[in-house]
Design goal:
Number of domains: 1
Number of strands: 0
Order of helices and strands: HHHHHHHHHH
Largest sheet: none
Distance between the termini: 50 Å
Number of helices: 10
Shape: elongated
Mean pLDDT: 79
Length: about 220
C-alpha cells in the first residue's frame, strides 16, 4: 500500500498542478497546518530534479506568505483564533517561552535559527504577531529561515536527485519512518521549550501567559 501511495504521489508531483499544490501546502503549514511541506517538496524534486531549485524557491516564498497569515492571527485574532490553534497543535505550553525569546534583542536570530530546527514554524509566526515584532524584521528573518530549510533540500536534490531516488525506491519504509520521526521531533522540541527542559535557565525560563499580559 505504501508503495502504491508513493507511486501515485510521484505521478501527481510531476503533474501540471503540482506547483500550486506545493505552494498551498507551504502556505497553510506556516500558519496552522501541522505537517511540514518537506515531503511534498522532496517528491516533486524527485520527479523533476532539474526543477528542484525552482520548487525550493516556490516553497520558500509560499511559506513566508503563509507566515504573514500566522503573524496576522497572532496580532489581530490571538484570543479568537491563535489560542485555539496553539492548543490544537499542542503548542500552548511552548508559547510563553517563545514569546519571551522573540521579544528580546535576539528575536531576529531566533527566527533564523529555527530554519535549522524541526520546531513548527507556525509557533514562530503566531508568536511574532502576538508580541508585535516589527513586520520588516519578521519578514527578513522569515525569508532567511525558510531559505535555510527549503533551499538545502532543493540543492541536494538538484545535485544528487538520481542516487537519492534510488535509495528511496529501495528503502521507502525507512524514508517514511525517518520523516515521521522528524515531525514528532519538531513537536517534542517545541514542547521542551515550554518547560525549557535540558537547558540552562535564562531570563525566559518560567515565563507564563499571565506575565505576558503587558506585551501588547
Amino acid at each position: 500500500m505504501l508503495r502504491r501511495l508513493y507511486n501515485w504521489t510521484m505521478g501527481k508531483a510531476a503533474g501540471p498542478f503540482a506547483e500550486y499544490w506545493l505552494a498551498l501546502f507551504a502556505f497553510v503549514e506556516a500558519s496552522f497546518f501541522p505537517i511540514p511541506p518537506h515531503p511534498v517538496l522532496g517528491l516533486m524534486c524527485l520527479a523533476r530534479p532539474e526543477r528542484a531549485i525552482r520548487y525550493a524557491i516556490i516553497t520558500t516564498l509560499a511559506s513566508v506568505a503563509g507566515g504573514l497569515l500566522g503573524y496576522a492571527i497572532g496580532h489581530f485574532a490571538f484570543a479568537l483564533v491563535g489560542e485555539k490553534l496553539l492548543d490544537a497543535l499542542h503548542l500552548t505550553a511552548s508559547f510563553p517561552y517563545a514569546a519571551c525569546k522573540l521579544r528580546g534583542e535576539a528575536g531576529f536570530i531566533a527566527i533564523i535559527a529555527k530554519g535549522a530546527t524541526p520546531i513548527p514554524f507556525k509557533l514562530i509566526t503566531i508568536t511574532a504577531g502576538f508580541i508585535g515584532m516589527p513586520l520588516g524584521k519578521f519578514m527578513l528573518a522569515s525569508v532567511i529561515s525558510r531559505s535555510i530549510s527549503f533551499m538545502i533540500v532543493g540543492v541536494l536534490f538538484r545535485l544528487f536527485g538520481a542516487p537519492i531516488k534510488a535509495w528511496i525506491d529501495k528503502y521507502l519504509a525507512v524514508a517514511v519512518g525517518g520523516f515521521v520521526v522528524l515531525v514528532v521531533a519538531g513537536f517534542v522540541a517545541a514542547a521542551m521549550l515550554g518547560g525549557h527542559k535540558g537547558a540552562v535557565a535564562d531570563e525566559c525560563t518560567g515565563v507564563t501567559m499571565e506575565s505576558l499580559a503587558g506585551v501588547k
